[in-house]
Amino acid sequence: MLSDPTDNTSPLLAMRCISKSFPGVRALSDVSLELMRGEVLALVGENGAGKSTLIKVLGGAHPPDSGEIHLDGQRVRFPTPTVAQHAGVSIIYQEFNLIPDLTVRENIFLGRERTRWGMIRAGDEDREVRELFAKIGTEIHPEARCRELTVAQQQKVEIAKALSQKARIVVMDEPTAALATKEVEQLYAVIEDLKAHGIGIIYISHRLEEIFEVADRVMVLRDGERVGCDEIGNVTRESLIETMVGRPIESEFPRHTATPGAERLRLEGLRRGNAVRDVSLTVRSGEILGMAGLAGAGRTETMRIAFGADTPDAGKIYIDGNPVRIRNPRDAIRQRICLLTEDRKGQGLVLKHSIRENFGLPNLDRYLRGPFIDERMERSELAQYAESLKIKIVGQDQPAGNLSGGNQQKVVLAKWLARQADILVFDEPTRGIDVGAKYEIYLLMNRLVEEGKAVIMISSELPEILGMSDRILVMHEGRIKGEIVDVAATTQEDILAMAIA
Is 173 within 8 Å of 93 (Cβ atoms)? Predict the structure, then answer.
């Protein structure tokens, strides 16, 4: 377990005994946090541990019920996000705060426009945006509409927006969730530059390898309480996991004995522009097929075709050896295929609707009794999955948008499991999810293949690909560049070599 030494030096930021409750939920209980100048403090914990609430208190989005915030030794109050920003607090939230119909430039300078005589100096803003993107090593046109950007590009816009605010404290909440390996390295360089200028950084991530790469200290929250804080050099991966979940975990990636059966899904010669170029693959019952590759390699695009979300230019799809025509997701669902999308908020859930309504959406034909929905059956099934998947909810009528990222992912899982699909595509299934929830999802995937399901897992986390896959396909620029059968003898470097070939 982590120790909790007291630091007597003067911190840049001190949050003292912060408590916060919501109806039915005690989110934070007397949590204290200290951040030094030029330091990276990693803030970790399971989903629902209170990390986001603590950051929203710091950012002025939530008023604390009790406790104090001190900046440079002076007590401060942040009643609104604007006040916090003016004080030098900049937060890159995990859930993007971009306005889709505004341009990249307009989003970055929203509320802080560069003006002269009442007119926006678009040229000056354009140059500053280009300088910011050069700093973080990316190229995005300043006049592109944010709704046209990929998830990874939107993440970079959020990072640029934070850097443009000349902050003294920068909070990064899952900043690499949508970034490729090269882009992550560029972010690390930005962090080092910020540290050199005395800026304090609070870094939230469920990717433990990142914590050990960038953090100077690590602080752990569990169930709304601070349960540990220590120098990163005093912490091991195993002790950090144990502190986060409150119990030892024998293996981060629980292994299963693969006994692949008959072919369930076969794709032949799929093509769609330059995104998918002559892709053929098979997956069998009782098998986890991992799909690796850099961002934009074509993994997601291939499986969107298989799910009927995109129309191919050419190619064939076979289920259980029989050719099928999948024109839309409804056809795919009838063929017992489900897709857990990488963007659970944008494509996997209707955030304003209740958990129950989201759960029922793909299962309405089963719950309909004439023109009415059998709500009792719907609620009963949801309760079963909420218990088996350990979904933390206040009630079934709670809006899905109010759940933590990990619990949102579990709701998406629940609705598809209720559909009794035979072929399950998991696209970045553990993105933004804590190590304890990841473990539960891994156990679930093992259970599915033991039941004879076929699982395709798309993941940018190479340890996850190697730890869970029975077989791995590596994609590059829309094509399959290689197949790995002997996963146990394969390294991350082997996969990367294929991915950048």
Answer: yes
